[in-house]
Design goal:
Number of strands: 0
Radius of gyration: 24 Å
Largest sheet: none
Helix content: over 70%
Number of helices: 3
Distance between the termini: 80 Å
Length: 53
């Protein structure tokens, strides 16, 4: 029978997984709300420029 407590003590995560986690969690990746906010701001600026001409 498997002794899960003993197996967990032996467990060591794969280095690539830890590197991937760091890369994922430490990046400031824009989500959809950031993208939509930027699009809305650009559209608003574009409309303001057209009205001022």
């Amino acid at each position: 029978m498997i002794d899960f407590d003993e197996e967990i003590k032996k467990f060591q995560p794969i280095l690539e997984v830890e590197d991937a986690e760091d890369a994922i969690y430490n990046k400031d990746i824009p989500d959809i709300t950031d993208v939509l906010g930027k699009i809305m701001a650009e559209a608003s600026d574009s409309n303001s420029n057209k009205k001022n001409k």
